[in-house]
């Protein structure tokens, strides 16, 4: 059983660090990193296309059935693990935001892709047959660029990756849409970014509304209109997710986790957790970490 929840950077998974990038066929990558079957986090973006295999893949405690033609997009900080049945293959790309951003003049460009928003319903895509063939060919071109370096090879890899991102993003986009966010969509994204930065120390929607220069009622209306959730629910959901992530580390006591998330005491944290999950933090930990 895993003894702690490791956080891997690209350098720790490869002997060669090139522009914050690691690219490999999946089978040899998995063979070299058998410890990745256990729950772990990454400090980088993580992209996997499966071409063969079966089993399950868990991302932030939601389980997905692995199948050929399936592509996964993961963002830094998510906890994931997998359990495969038989031989599994495909492609994997680990990359830092800096690897893409250094090529573009548009800050936060990756945020424009739905599958990099951290929402799991957008992060796992079952590709139609024609799209699978197109994306698979792009991965093959990337592997070729890595195996046979040429002038401006890193830029070619970036271009090929962007083709993958744009192609997959178009599958779930409104063809008639301009691709530009409305004012309220931009407001919601900014609210979600603030929550990501401050969920442990800012607990009330009114304090976020003040940072966004809007009223609490306006913020709540935007969240309900676009997500069907209240502004407070978004804060609580992010706090709960981090609690689950921290509980995968048996070296952290419940008191440690409660303190990290700024709960006044352990009993309040336990009540908060059990209200949504129907189990105590201790029971949840036992379920996650059982052999």
TrEMBL record:
GO terms for molecular function: DNA-binding transcription factor activity; sequence-specific DNA binding. InterPro entries: AraC-bd, Homeodomain-like_sf, HTH-like, HTH_AraC, RmlC-like_jellyroll, Tscrpt_reg_AraC-type_HTH. This is Helix-turn-helix domain-containing protein. Keywords: DNA-binding, Transcription, Transcription regulation. PROSITE patterns: HTH_ARAC_FAMILY_2. It comes from Mucilaginibacter ginsenosidivorax. Residues 189-287 form the HTH araC/xylS-type domain.
């Amino acid at each position: 059983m895993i003894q702690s929840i490791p956080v891997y950077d690209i350098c720790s998974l490869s002997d060669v660090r090139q522009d914050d990038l690691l690219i490999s066929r999946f089978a040899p990558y998995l063979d070299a990193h058998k410890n990745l079957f256990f729950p772990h986090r990454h400090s980088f973006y993580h992209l996997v296309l499966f071409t063969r295999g079966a089993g399950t893949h868990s991302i932030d405690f939601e389980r997905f059935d692995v199948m050929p033609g399936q592509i996964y997009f993961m963002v830094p900080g998510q906890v994931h693990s997998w359990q495969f049945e038989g031989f599994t293959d495909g492609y994997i790309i680990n990359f830092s935001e800096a690897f893409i951003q250094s090529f573009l003049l548009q800050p936060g460009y990756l945020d424009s892709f739905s599958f990099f928003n951290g929402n799991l319903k957008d992060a796992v895509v079952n590709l139609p047959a024609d799209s699978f063939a197109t994306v698979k060919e792009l991965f093959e071109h990337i592997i070729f660029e890595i195996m046979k370096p040429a002038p401006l090879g890193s830029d070619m890899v970036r271009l090929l990756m962007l083709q993958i991102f744009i192609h997959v993003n178009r599958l779930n986009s409104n063809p008639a849409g301009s691709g530009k966010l409305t004012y309220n969509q931009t407001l919601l994204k900014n609210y979600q970014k603030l929550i990501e930065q401050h969920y442990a120390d800012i607990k009330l929607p009114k304090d976020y509304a003040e940072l966004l220069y809007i009223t609490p009622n306006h913020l709540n209306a935007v969240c309900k209109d676009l997500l069907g959730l209240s502004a407070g629910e978004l804060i609580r959901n992010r706090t709960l997710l981090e609690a689950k992530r921290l509980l995968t580390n048996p070296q952290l006591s419940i008191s440690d986790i409660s303190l990290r998330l700024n709960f006044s005491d352990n009993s309040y944290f336990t009540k908060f957790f059990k209200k949504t999950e129907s189990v105590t933090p201790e029971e949840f930990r036992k379920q996650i970490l059982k052999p």
